[in-house]
Amino acid sequence: MHALVIEDDAVTAMMIEDELRDLGFTSVDLAATEEEAIAAVARHRPDLVTSDGSLLNGNGIRAVRKFRATVAVPVIFITGDPERARHCMPGAPLLEKPFTVAQFVAAVELARTALPERR
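and the corresponding structure tokens:
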């Protein structure tokens, strides 16, 4: 399984990547900007996306809106501004920073139940 981590904080991105690999994801792309996130989805459709809301260069929520217009992929928002993310995709798993590993694992398991069938 392949994941995309949209996160501009390198330490947080590496922690998320490590946890995803522990959960069975075999490849992970990291995107620190809105532009990088959109390009990563175009290159390799992920089975799961984690996205920060605000990025230093661009916006994770806007990136998700753009690629979700054409690609069905489960998203977990991991953000310090949960209300904004909640309005973007009601019902999507949402973690407020700071979060625990247990909360992250629970959110991934919830999102995995919504993974679309891969052909």
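(Above: one complete record from the training split.) The domain at 2-112 is CATH 3.40.50.2300 (Rossmann fold).
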